[in-house]
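Exercise 7. Given the encoded structure of a 201-residue chain, write a plausible sequence.
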């Protein structure tokens, strides 16, 4: 597109690209653009300006919009597929996690149960051994105490029996003495009476 074919809007776009003011009428815009080209030592008469036709631009914009819409729809569809896949994967992972947690919990509970049973058995055996030892010690102490008490009782009984034996012996001695005394007295009386009688009547 040649310089003389440029419209006002195209002139403004050209000036804007060159970072020049875009205010003014068509003649002012043309003069400003010519001066800039001269300053840059460019022949503006032979220069080809690349401006697409507005219709073509609109068509391309519409096509681009349609492409964007199609692309966006595809992206949405793909995003929906990704969401669905993610949901399925999440549900699968959640199910797997639940199963793993259940298996782990089951294994841990079984291990804990075994340890508790083992510990309980050890504690029970320990308590039983301690109880047996205490019973043996108590029985031993009670037997020793009972033996001592029996010995003391037998000692007391023996002392009492010895005392009774001594009393019986003393009583027998007294009885024997009294019997002897009685016999002596009877004998003396008989002799006395005998001597008291006259020899001849």
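Solution.
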């Amino acid at each position: 597109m040649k310089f003389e074919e440029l419209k006002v809007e195209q002139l403004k776009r050209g000036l804007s690209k060159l970072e020049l003011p875009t205010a003014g009428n068509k003649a002012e815009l043309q003069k400003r653009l010519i001066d800039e080209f001269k300053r840059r030592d460019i022949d503006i008469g032979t220069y080809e300006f690349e401006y697409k036709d507005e219709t073509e631009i609109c068509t391309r914009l519409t096509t681009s919009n349609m492409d964007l819409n199609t692309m966006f729809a595809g992206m949405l569809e793909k995003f929906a597929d990704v969401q669905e896949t993610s949901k399925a994967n999440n549900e699968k992972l959640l199910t797997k996690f639940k199963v793993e947690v259940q298996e782990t919990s089951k294994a841990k509970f079984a291990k804990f149960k075994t340890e508790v049973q083992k510990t309980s058995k050890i504690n029970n055996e320990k308590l039983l051994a301690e109880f047996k030892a205490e019973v043996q010690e108590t029985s031993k102490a009670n037997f020793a105490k009972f033996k001592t008490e029996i010995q003391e009782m037998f000692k007391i009984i023996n002392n009492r029996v010895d005392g009774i034996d001594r009393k019986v012996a003393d009583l027998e001695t007294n009885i024997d003495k009294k019997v002897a005394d009685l016999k002596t007295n009877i004998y003396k009386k008989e002799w006395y009476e005998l001597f008291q009688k006259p020899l001849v009547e």
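Remark. Helices lie at 8-17, 26-39, 54-196. Students should compare their own answers with the one above.
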